[in-house]
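Sharing a chain and its predicted structure for anyone who wants a worked example. Both blocks are below, sequence first, tokens second.
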Amino acid sequence: MKLHLVQMHPEINDRLANLEKVLGYVERGVKAGADIIAFGECALNGYDTTGAVGYEAMAEPVPGPATEAVSRLLKGKRTLVLLGMAERVRDDIYNAAPLIGADGVIGTARKLYLVAMKSKTSGKTHNEKLIFKPGERIAIFDTEFGRIGVQICLDNRHPEIAYAQALAGCWLKLRPSAGPHRAGQPLTSPLDLGRAIETQMCDGYINIVGDQAGTWYRGGTQVILGSKGVVKQASAGLEAVEEVLEYEITKEEVYRARGTWHNVRETRPDLLEQLWRIASQYQSGG
């Protein structure tokens, strides 16, 4: 299966320009035989949570104009597209990533854990909780390429999401992100490598790139295999550019590697039930 992970520079507050760019990548990807084309977090709108991006005005429903425009390019094809965007559901806005095929939207991932932090590099306070509503369901999609999981950026810091996706039989995890440049920090965190090892999924990390309201987003789009580590990576850091990372893999390769690793295979539901009870008590202050 051929992946096209699009490391794109979205324009702040210019949904139409970004959509035109997305459609161009989709059209070229289809011609090149890509099976899945994936974009970064909020690629349709640009990413900033300090007030520079008008998500309230730009958010649109799913299905909606953007997903329908993408779907039209996929008619008669097997290609799937994952598009990071702001989704409107009545009065709520989600940081979302719909998976789109020739017949429309297959399903929509919504970011489960929202960022609330002060940037060490820019000094800006980023608080997604003031803009977005958190999602409620772990994203697991059945496709003709097998079962696929989707996480959005910070979601990968929470092990229960990837673990649930692996237990459900996902062999591929797509991870749209908006990761800023941080001087002196490794591009691939030990946490991301560890998550790939413990779940033995193919991890497709798709970052945006370039300036977003004064913050530089570092690219570094990559593919991580639990059995091999980082197998391919796009340009990263202050030298990062807009580009497409192409990678071919089969689900059989991933399942073979998982068969030699005990974590998923030997999961004990009784222990997960204990974890649920402990987490419930913690949330209630017990």
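Comments welcome. The chain has one domain: 2-283.
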